[in-house]
Amino acid sequence: MKHWNARGNAILIAKALLDSNVIVAAVAEIHEHYAPSAALFFGQRTMRLAVAVHSYAEAYSTLTRRGDHAPFRFKGEEAWAALERIAALTDLIGLTPAQTFGSMRTFAQGGGIGPRLYDRLVGEAAVAHELPTIVTWNVRHMRSLFPTLDVVTPAEYARAS
Fold first, then answer.
1. CA atoms within 13 A on the CB side of 29
2. CA 112 to CA 99: how far, in whole Å?
3. CA–CA separation, 51 vs 122, rounded Å?
4. How far apart are CA 27 and CA 59, in angstroms?
5. Could you tell me which residues come within 8 angstroms of residue 12 by beta carbon, excluding any fewer than 6 positions away?
6. Quick one: pLDDT at residue 8?
7. CB-count exposure of residue 2 (10 Å: 0-12, 13-18, 19+)
8. Tens digits of residue pLDDT in 83-130
9. Which of 23, 139, 7 is nearest to 90 (CA)?
10. How far apart, in whole angstroms, are the C-alpha atoms of residue 89 and residue 40?
11. Residue 11 reports pLDDT greater than 80
């Protein structure tokens, strides 16, 4: 994420962008990846992380989903409180409306379908904010979309930081 110093020069604060699946795993104790994901936020933190604004919407939807394929079933207020805890520890970034629409167009024209669109938007946010690393549990999918970025799991990122 870009911030500006007193001389007007851009400085990068966050070193990596988190995927929504890391956020979900960090707040849902029953998630198989809870411990390494939560450690990014609640352990000994020396790293600065960013989250794309649309990833919070995706995480909220996942946490509050109902039906047969809904493992977490958070109440709305529980999900929101959990996401606010994460937001307080991260930098919020996003794409402009034009960048979002352009990313969707590129995805569609390339034959993309379904929820991989969200991976595309995460990667585009990393590129737009010059973040060299994406932290995700969906490494294979993200690497296929963004081969020039460093794509790692939370455990790999924590070891390297």
1. 0
2. 17
3. 8
4. 10
5. 1, 2, 3, 130, 131
6. 53
7. middle
8. 999 998 899 999 999 999 999 999 999 999 998 999 999 999 999 999
9. 23
10. 10
11. no
Runs of H (alpha helix) within the chain: 20-27, 34-42, 53-64, 76-87, 97-109, 116-128, 139-145, 154-160
CB 130 within 8 A of CB 118: no
State what percent of residues in the chain have pLDDT above 90. Answer: 74
Question: Residue 44 gets which letter from DSSP?
Answer: S
DSSP state of 30: T
The pLDDT value given to residue 5:
46
21 and 139 in contact (C-beta within 8 Å)? no
One-letter amino acid of 65: R
Q: What is the pLDDT of residue 6?
A: 45
| Sign of CA pseudo-dihedral 1, 32, 139, 97 | negative
Tokens 């929101």, located at residue: 80
The average pLDDT across 127-144 equals 95
**Ordered structural domains, the chain, with CATH:** 12-160 (3.40.50.1010)
Task: Indicate the pLDDT class of residue 45, thresholds 50, 70 and 90.
Answer: low
CA 126, 96, 78: angle at the middle one, nearest 5? Answer: 75
